[in-house]
Every structure is written in structure tokens, then in C-alpha cells.
Specification:
alpha+beta, three-stranded antiparallel sheet, globular
Length: 125
């Protein structure tokens, strides 16, 4: 197979969620992420950390045309959020908000920093 053909196969696998690191497909990793996050937000909520899910961003816009929703938690270190496809809605047993909280501008890197900081300090304890 040529390099162009290899790239086309990889593009197709990525689009279908089937690209793999040799252990897990991209789709499996997203499912793991959703399940781990669903467990985390339940624990956070039980510890008094504010967590909500919403079909709409704070400005009223649907999350990615209504096919996704957002889960937002306000950890001691700051806001963290993720979007998930509609089929994952029932995994997140947290309060529903008509609108998500105002986004504080966090980046993916900042979310990682905030999660690490809260693990180090034992967030919610």
C-alpha cells in the first residue's frame, strides 16, 4: 500500500472511531472517558461540589447543534467541563440546568492542571 492509501485508511478509521493504539480504539477510549467522568461527577456531587449537565451553553446555543450536551463541575481549583454525544446523557446522574454555567475560558491544558491540583489536595474532602 502507498503512503496516500495508508493515510486514507487512517482517515477512515479516525472518522469511524476505529483508529487504535494497539490496545484500544479511539471510540473505546472516548467511552472509557465518559464512564470515568460519570463516576467522578457522581462522587463530586456527593461531596458537595457543584455539577450540572445541559443541552445548551451559557449563551443559550445548543451544544454542537443539539447532538451533544455539556457536563460542568466547579472544582476548588476551577471549572472543568466536557461535551458528550446525546446517547451518553443517562450516564451522568447530576442535576440538569437549562443553561450551562458561564464558561470561565479554561483550556484543555488548564482542565488537566485543575484535575491534578484537586487530586493532590484531595478535592471535596
Amino acid at each position: 500500500m502507498s503512503t496516500d492509501e495508508d493515510l486514507e485508511v487512517l482517515r477512515h478509521q479516525l472518522a469511524a472511531g476505529q483508529a487504535s493504539d494497539g490496545q484500544h480504539t479511539h471510540a473505546e477510549l472516548y467511552e472509557f472517558r465518559a464512564l470515568f467522568h460519570a463516576h467522578a461527577v457522581r462522587a463530586w456531587l456527593a461531596e458537595g461540589i457543584p455539577v450540572v449537565k445541559s443541552w445548551r451553553h451559557h449563551d443559550g446555543a445548543e451544544c454542537f447543534g443539539g447532538a451533544f450536551f455539556i457536563v460542568v463541575a466547579q472544582l476548588p481549583s476551577g471549572q472543568v467541563s466536557n461535551h458528550y454525544p446525546s446517547h451518553a446523557w443517562s450516564l451522568f446522574d447530576v442535576p440538569v440546568a437549562e443553561l450551562a454555567p458561564v464558561h470561565d475560558g479554561h483550556t484543555s491544558s488548564e482542565v488537566l492542571e485543575r484535575l491534578r491540583a484537586d487530586l493532590a489536595r484531595g478535592a471535596g474532602r
